[in-house]
Structures are given as structure tokens and as C-alpha cells.
Amino acid sequence: MTDTPFPDFQDPATDLVALDRSHIWHPFTQEATAPPPVPIASAEGAVLRTPDGREILDMISSWWVTLHGHAQPEIADAIAHQARTLEHVIFAGFTHAPAVEVAERLTAVLPQSINRVFFSDNGSTAVEVALKLAVQYHYNKGDTQRRRFLAFQGGYHGDTFGAMSAGRGSGFFQPFASHLFSVDMMPWPETWAGDGEVDRKEHEALAALDEYLDRHAWETVAMIMEPLVQGASGMRMVRPEFMRAVVSRLRDHNVLVIFDEVMTGFGRTGRVFAASRCGLTPDLMCLSKGLTGGALPLAVTACRDTIYQGFLDEDFAHAFAHGHSFTANPLGCAAAAASLKLLAAPDIPERLQAIEARHRQHLAPLASHPRVTHPRVTGTIAALTVASEDAGYTAAIGARLKAFFLENNVLIRPLGNVIYLMPPYCITEEQLDHAWHVIGQALDTITE
Ligand SMILES: *Cc1c(COP(=O)(O)O)cnc(C)c1O
After folding, report:
1. Angle, helix 330-343 to helix 73-85, in steps of 10 degrees
2. CB 263 near ligand 1, within 6 Å
3. More confident residue, 396 or 338
4. Rounded to the nearest whole angstrom, what is the distance from the C-alpha of residue 325 to the centroid of ligand 1?
């Protein structure tokens, strides 16, 4: 073998951006117009570091995954130890300690009657599994009349075909529209601080749901929703009482309830799950993103015992014939076990509350800023809408805001004209204050 002509990729002098640009295709990116990617060499806590030593404050938990901070030592040690012990084993017919530990730790914090977990490896697969389990649950019972799915306008559930179908109301999937299965959409009565219309909006949304269920409940498989906060479509929040009213109607009509907590899970809404914050128990729950503390890809679809029981039979045809090569990967499970242990620390509830309180302190005065509308907070997630000519994910102002934040060494990635913060829980008061200060500057500086 001859020596490869490759440069030393870790050498700060190596032009990573040029090499990246010649061969890499980035997610959710218009490569023709996007600014060059920023190389990151290392990270610690809430801070990302570039090869030339610039420090960037990560206020979005790196696409909503990082819980306890970057390069968290306990999680890193757990992964390293596991990598030297058992890196992977087929999960059909075999099991291992990290998977069992995750299942035990998770079911201890999930709503009480959710006691069964099915592993996969990302949020989209967790959603696919939930949709398929719901379909086959009815099929196994001989109920083949149920063909409809329900979801909320603006909901986002991932980028695979089933997830896109359920999330078609998010508006991201136009090229695929004719290839998606049909999912019926209900209105989502998003609300914010000082919203005088919330009762009317909720009333209308529930009336639409009632009307739908009266006609179609008998042929409906399940309703999928992001409880309390719709993430990707712009941190659109509803009240817990709305979630409770929805779930109670679905229960009355025997329609399965799927909570997609891929984003809201693991403390983001101030409690371990949005389900716990609302005092609700769905039939199925999708978890990923924060499951490993953000260190490795892993996902879980958790369900009630009744769902699981519906697959038990002498006949293999009733089994859930679904699996992924890396189902319950031991490294991912070791990271998840370590993260769940950290999440159970006694100071976590206080920490989540402190973040929420700080958000509210900063958002209150900003609410009267001439460019700010719809200030809103749920747990550790804070958001505001910037008054601008165009709205939505592709709003031009979004790119300018993003660039402004990055120039100021803060990673904030607006969803169109929506600015939001979703910090890792290790964020300090100073860091949080600084991020809000930079948001204030952006609002005063950026023009249409
Ligand atoms: C991110 C997200 C998904 C998809 O997860 P991936 O890991 O990106 O596939 C699904 N549902 C919600 C609510 C999400 O925020």
C-alpha cells in the first residue's frame, strides 16, 4: 500500500471548508446560496470551538439534541467504556445490559402505563414505528376498516415517507406531495403571552375535531401530535388544557393517541415529558434527540401494554416484523443510560425552572419592542416572532438574523422569522443573558 495523499485532517491549517465543499452535501441546505459551513474542532458545555479558537455559544442544543452540554464527561466515559466492551450485537434474539438499563430507566420516568420500549435510531424511525404499530395493532385485531390518520396543521414528524405524510401540514414536503399517504389535518390553536383569542381558537379547533370524530372515528387508526410545542414549524405552543381536551376526545372515540416527543422529551417543556406536564398518558410515544443527551443517534417508540399484547400470538404474522441494523446499539444505549442518570439528578427540576424564569424575564420587556410579536415560553423553550414582510421558514429575514447571530458568536438558527432559544441545561445565567442581549441587538439592527 502506498501512503495516501491525504492531509492531516486535524491540523488547523488544513482547509476543511474547501474539502467539505468539494464532496459534502449538507442537510436542509440550499448549497447554491448557503454561506460556507463553520468548522468546529471541539466543544464543552454550551460552547463550540472552531479550529482557530473562536468560541460560539450553542443556544439551540445543536439541532435540539444536547441536554447536559457538549462532550459531557460522564456520557463520554460511558461510551468509551462500552466501545471497548461490546460495540454492537444483533438485537433480534440477543440483549445487553445498556439496552436493559435504558428500558428500566425510561419506563421509570414515562407515564405509568407506558411500560414497553421498541428501539430504533432516529426521530423519523421512531415515528415510522409508531405509525406502523398503530396500523398493525388494529390489523391484528381483525379491524381492517381503520385507514385514516389524523394530525395537526403545522406538525412536523421527520423526513421519511410516513413521517412526511403525518407532517405534510408543516409545508416542507411539496415535491413529494403526490407520493404521501393521506392524513387529515386539524387546526392547531397556537397561543402566546397576552393572546386574547386563545379561548375562541381552542373552541374552534375542538369543534372541528368533534365534527371529524363523529364522522370518521370508526375508520381512524390514530392521531399523532407534538404535545405542547410544534418545533420545526416555528415553536408554536398550545396550552396544556387544549392537549387534555384533545386526548379526552380521542379516548372517548377509541382513537389511538401518538405523542411525538422527539423534540419535547427529556426536560425541554420543564418536565421530563410534555405528557407529564399535561398529566396525560398517550398510547404510543416517540423519543429520540435528547435520549442520549445528544451524543449518539438512538430512538425509542414506547407504548402501553395493551398495544404490546396485541402482537402476541402463536402466529408470526402477528409479530412486528420491523427492525434496523443498529436497533438498540450498545454505544447509543450506554450514552442514553448515562444521560438519563444525569437527568435524574436532584438539581435538574430547579435548573429547568431557572432557565424558564430567565427566559420570561428577558422576554417580558422585549414584548413591547416594535418588531416583536407572539412572545412565548414553554419550559426551557422561548420564542418570538419578528414582524416582517414575509413569514414562514423561507422568510428572507431568517438568513440575515442567522448571519447576525453567528457574527456575534451565538448559534441561534431562526425558523424563518421566528427566533427561539433551546439551550442545553448546563447554560449559565451569564450565557443566557448574553444570548438575549444579542437578540435585542439583532431586533434593533436588522432591517427588512
Ligand atoms: C426532529 C424531529 C423528528 C425527526 O427526528 P430525526 O432524528 O431528525 O429523524 C421527528 N419529530 C419531531 C417532533 C422532531 O422535532
Report:
1. 150
2. yes
3. 338
4. 20
